[in-house]
Every structure is written in C-alpha cells, then in structure tokens.
Design brief:
The relative contact order is 0.09. By secondary structure, this protein is an alpha+beta fold. The protein starts with a helix and ends with a helix. α6 packs across α7 and α11 packs across α12. The protein has 14 helices and 18 strands. The chain is elongated. The strands form 4 sheets. Strands 7, 8, 9, 10, 11 and 12 form a 6-stranded antiparallel β-sheet that branches. The chain folds into 3 domains: 157 residues, D-amino Acid Aminotransferase, Chain A, domain 1 (2-Layer Sandwich), CATH 3.30.470.20; 81 residues, ATP-grasp fold, A domain (Dna Ligase, domain 1), CATH 3.30.1490.20; 148 residues, Rossmann fold, CATH 3.40.50.261. The structure holds guanosine-5'-diphosphate (GDP) and manganese (II) ion (MN). The site of guanosine-5'-diphosphate (GDP) has 17 residues, from β2, α3, β3, β7 and β10.
Length: 389
C-alpha cells in the first residue's frame, strides 16, 4: 500500500526527520490560507498523487506570491497529471501540498529497499539526487552506493558514516546524516514498510546548510496492515483502481488488463494459466479475476458485474477447477448473474472438480445459452474465437 508524499513527510517528522513546513489543501482558497499560516514569501505547490516524476510533468511549482500560488493550485486540482509513472491516462489531482520553498544547495538520493538476493534491507544512496535513480543506475552506476543492513543488529553508525562520506556529506553534515538515516530506517521497521525513498534529500539554506527531506515515498506491506492501524488510515482509495477496490470489498482479487476477454477463475495459478492459454490462442485478456475458494453464488454474481464494468469486454471466460469450491454453486451464481445483470456478452464456461456433474446439469437446464468447454485449452480457443467473431 502506498501513501501520499505529505503523509510520508508527516510520518517522518514524528521520527525527528527535518521536512519543510507545510499543509495540505483541496482548493486554491484553502491553499492560500495554508501559505499565509505557514508564512514566508516562496512556496512550493505539489500535486499529491501516488506516482513520481511530477516535477518534469508540471506537478511541482515554485511560486513567489499568493496570486501565483492560487493560479498554480487551480491549474493542478481537478486535472489528470500524466507522468512517466502514471500511464497515458494520468492520475486525477484531488489535493495539493503547500510548503515553504527551500533554497537548495545540493540534492541527494536515499532509498531503503528489500533486496531479495540477500533477504535484507539495503540502503541505497547517491550524490546524484533529484533525477531518476533508474537513469543514474544506467548511466553512472558507480555513483550509486549500496549498504546491506543486518536485521539482527540494525543500521549501525559506521555504515551511515560510510554512506554519507561516499555521497560527499562531511563536517557538520555527518552527524545529521547519521541521525536522519537511522530515523528513516527505524520508521521503516516500525511501520512494516517495504520501501522508503527520499529523492531528493537536500542540503538547504545558507553556509553549511541543513539536511532536509524534500520528497518522500513509502510503500507498506499489505500483509502487515492488520497490525498497522495508523498506516491503514492513510490509505487513499481514490488513488486505486475503483474496480479493484470494489472487488477487494467482496473478497475478490481483480486486476485490470487491456484486452477484451473477461476472465473469472479460481486461484491465482489457474488465473495465470488461463491468461497464458488465451494469449497462446492469439487473444487478449481484459482482466484477472480470482474468485478464490468457497465462491458463493453472490460472489460469482459480483465477479460478473465487476468484469462487465469494463466496456471492452466482448465475452467472459469462466474457468473453475473446484476443490474447496463447488461447481453447482458456481453454476447457480452464473445463472443468477445472467438474470440479474442481463448479461449481453457470451459466457464460455469450463467446470471441473467438486460437484461438476451437478454444475453442468444446472447450466444445461437453465434455458440460457452458455458455451461450454471440456478443458482449459478448449475454453481458451472458444473464448478467443468468440471475442474475434
Ligand atoms: P517528483 O518529480 O514527483 O519526484 O517530485 P519532487 O518532490 O522530487 O520534486 C521535483 C523537483 O522539484 C526536486 O528535485 C527539486 O529540484 C524541486 N523542488 C522540490 N521542492 C523544492 C523547493 O522547496 N525549492 C526548490 N527550489 N525546488 C524544489
Ligand atoms: Mn522526487
């Protein structure tokens, strides 16, 4: 689960990390009030969406007057910001973060990620902050520093000093850098984060300057949310695909894809196999919908409704290998869905496993025209033919 930049900054602030003074706003009026409250003469307006690359896309604006601030906010709120991370449709900007602008001397990169190879959190740092870290990794890999953290003893001072030295932080900046890195690591562990990325970490102000987090991105472990109430409360459902949110509310796993064959399947493995079989036959899946084990008729109806909300769907492939599931329930659910949703697109149904005979009988006696299939390959071929027909 992701959170907004301003939520990440507020969280880091509670760990003693320096972040700019700021406030969140949903309109230009509110933004003006925030700017007056926090004071100063220069502010940064930052679009709050769950994607990076906002700077280059017009989602970060430095302004010198309240008038310009209101104009910048007005131009952002309600528009879809397209960055290299959002995809072509962009993300709707519903709130902005207003903060006092900082006089930046230098920008750095700091990231904590879980390295699957070593099975440890790795601290990644670079003197080339502010820009895409992927680009730095490609073009100047020697500018990226890695420091592996032992989970039993945590991040040690000498490791922080080593990293700080490597990115050019010395003198009075050294103890600040050590304190900041340790605080971010502690925050990450406390909150079950999978990733914490600070880009840029900046040296701001005059003279020796001060280290400040100007942009922060956090990603949390969904499996740990049950014990992270404060993190869960920061979830912004508006940032997630509405169909995926609705599906999770019904205990279904839905992932939107860009083809035209809707897929209702039980189990992630069978779902992947179904997508492969469709692709092998030259078709393109519209989604991945896993009804899981114990799919009641209601669950199947909800699954059909969610799949049909995608206007590109030309037919639905239902592929169930029932173990815990029961084919008769699936069949009953499909009939209920056809009647209550007035389904116009053909349904290709392949049932196997528990109560398969009852399931097939229910479909056959329903008076509705299902296209039935014997096995996965047959079902995929029929679905592709139907979608293309
Ligand atoms: P991102 O593009 O989505 O990663 O957004 P960032 O928050 O990283 O902002 C992009 C760039 O805007 C930063 O790399 C900075 O160069 C600039 N920026 C952000 N905050 C400030 C600020 O307070 N003052 C100035 N002058 N520039 C800023
Ligand atoms: Mn950034």
């Amino acid at each position: 689960m992701n959170i907004h930049e301003y939520q990440a900054k507020e969280l880091l602030k509670t760990y003693g990390v320096s972040v700019p003074v700021g406030g969140v706003a949903y309109s230009d009026q509110q933004a003006a009030r925030v700017a007056e409250d926090i004071g100063g003469h220069r502010w940064v307006v930052k679009a709050q969406i769950h994607a990076g690359g906002r700077g280059k896309a017009g989602g970060v604006k430095v302004v010198n007057s309240i008038d310009d601030l209101k104009k910048a906010v007005d131009a952002m709120i309600g528009t879809r910001l397209v960055t290299h991370q959002t995809g072509p449709d962009g993300s709707l900007v519903q709130r902005v973060w207003i903060e006092q602008a900082s006089a930046i001397q230098k920008e750095f990169y700091l990231g904590f990620v879980i390295d699957r190879g070593t099975q440890r959190i790795t601290l990644i740092a670079s003197s080339e902050g502010g820009m895409d870290i992927e680009e730095v990794a490609r073009e100047q890999p020697e500018k990226i520093i890695h420091e592996v953290i032992d989970p039993a003893i945590g991040l040690l001072d000498f490791q922080c000093r080593k990293v700080a030295t490597a990115i050019g932080l010395k003198g009075k900046r050294m103890p600040q850098a050590v304190k900041l890195m340790k605080a971010i690591y502690r925050c990450m562990r406390d909150r079950d984060a999978l990733q914490a990325e600070i880009n840029p970490l900046a040296l701001v102000g005059d003279g020796d300057g001060q280290l400040m987090v100007l942009d922060a991105k956090f990603n949390f472990d969904d499996n740990a949310l049950y014990r992270q109430k404060a993190v869960t409360e920061m979830r912004d459902l508006a940032e997630e695909d509405p169909k995926e949110v609705e599906a999770s509310g019904h205990g279904l796993n839905y992932i939107a894809l860009d083809g035209n064959i809707g897929c209702i399947v039980n189990g992630a493995g069978l779902a992947m196999a179904s997508l492969d079989a469709i692709t092998l036959h030259g078709g393109r899946p519209a989604n991945f919908l896993d009804v899981g084990g114990g799919a009641s008729p209601e669950k199947v109806t909800n699954a059909c409704r969610i799949v049909l909300e995608d206007p590109n769907v030309r037919c639905i492939l239902v592929n169930i290998f029932a173990g815990i599931n029961r084919c008769d329930w699936i069949a009953t659910g499909l009939i209920q869905a056809c009647n209550s949703l007035k389904i116009q697109v053909p349904l290709i149904v392949r049932l196997a496993g528990t109560n398969v005979e009852e399931g097939r009988k229910i479909l056959a006696e329903s008076g509705l025209s299902f296209i039935t299939a014997e096995n996965l390959d047959d079902a995929a071929a029929k679905a592709v033919a139907t979608a293309q027909g």
